[in-house]
Amino acid sequence: MDQLGMVAAAEESTRARDWAAAAERWREVVEVNPVNGIFWCRLGLARFETGDHSGALDAYRKAAELGIWPIGYWAPLPPIFPGELTYEIARCHGALGDREAAFEALVRAIGEGLREPGKARADLALLSDDPRLDDVVGPARPAEPAKPAESDDSASRVEKWRSDLRFLRAEIARRIPRPEILDDDFRAAADGLDHDVPDLDDAGIVIGIWRLLRRLGDGHAWVDADERYPEWSRSLPVWFYAFHDGLLVTETDPRFRHLAGAEVLAVDGHPVAKVFDALDPLFTRDNEYTPALQGAMWLRRPAYVHAVGVADRPDGVTLTVRPPGGSVTDVRVPADPVDEALTWPNSRPRPWPWNCPPGSVRPPFETPAHLRDVDNPFWFEYQAAGNLVYFQFNGVRDKDDDTLAACYERVFAAVAEHDARALVIDMRWNGGGNTFLGQTLVHHVLRHPDLPVFVIIGNYTFSAAQNTVTLLDRHTHAVFVGEPTGSAPSFVGESVPFTLPASGVRVNVSDLYWQTGWPFDHRVAVAPRIYAPLTAADYLAGRDPAMDAVREHLAL
């Protein structure tokens, strides 16, 4: 059997979890090719699962020496994330009963950025009584942590929050891929929040945590206190979107149907611009194109708007609005409990269906294609007007019953079937997903160098969608249309949340630095070659300026 055949057979045994066969086959592979770290890593996994912990340790050490990267998309995914390979070495030492070696490897893994260090409590049972464990992995989280505010002892409440802030600072320091961010200004801000804890209520402390995260330059960073403080998640039963020419109500509960399409001028007497300015220090971001999106979402949460001083009460607001064709009026809108926590910090002209009540009301216009099915991760159609294939790509993820790879094939088959003049890939409402699934699209575009390809982008284009756009920009002839993206060609981003032990508040801080652009590409976003911003007037008229611009170009 040739080398590639040997690897395929070994990988098949791994996928089938036939560990004895996998261990033997990977042993044969590394005898022939001892220089590829991923093969040693697979051997370590198979040996560990068969109980050969000493052999697994040797294999994992060799893998760590060489470095690993999966060839293709292997399952189970190898330990490629920060600290994971070193953690496997710690597990080997633990299984062999070597407490000190296990502890030392665990410390190294955590220093390398291991996600979820607390899992060591279960995986490394021999360290369960080690008094150093809490200092390394953090204090064990109670099954149901009490809110600090519920303590009868104010000193205890203060200490609980301060312990959470210490834990937060430690997690930030070991996770962020750009440690220079933690400069004197950050340390001063963190020290200031710690100092102010006795004088702040719980909402004020959470607001302070948001302010700290804002300093990280990490658009994926967030705080979720909804589970512990459900009253803070109460939301206005109206949805907003910040267009270039104004903030509109884009969807409403039936009780407020008269507000659909209304322009919002003020909140409790404060102009919208002032409200957004007050909230701005809380908006985590990769660039300055996303705060308007975030403001439209945060505005639905009066508890937070009240906490920053631009709402009179935490349970609702008075909106000053101008309905279409009507006069300026004030409307009191109470906040309602929500069954499902809202996504922070994104907003679109048409919200996710699960975010809206049954019978929700939208402005009366013919829905353009780009707003027709935004909750669908991907779909396409042939449009005879312009002789083009329109592919709306809203999420870089597979569906339960379909895959992106299969959809890409169908899209380009439709281009061939109709002899389409152009392909439009609409990614303006794509907030991300799995970056690995976007690369195949780039390959398809590269195989069609004579096909005009237009990619519609906007400030909602983020995360894995940003990486896909950057790859299309770097490698293909695609023409970008619309507005600048919500992230940069190189950015910090990942969803790896953790829990503050005392309060139970969830926090996300990214641990990966995506460098999809060239090393000298310092753009803050991928900008369109054809600028076509969506205005409130366009929205209310059911127009799509980006598609209009594409058709205008094709008509030349």
From TrEMBL:
<dbReference type="Pfam" id="PF13432">
    <property type="entry name" value="TPR_16"/>
</dbReference>
<dbReference type="InterPro" id="IPR011990">
    <property type="entry name" value="TPR-like_helical_dom_sf"/>
</dbReference>
<protein>
    <recommendedName>
        <fullName>Tetratricopeptide repeat-containing protein</fullName>
    </recommendedName>
</protein>
<dbReference type="InterPro" id="IPR029045">
    <property type="entry name" value="ClpP/crotonase-like_dom_sf"/>
</dbReference>
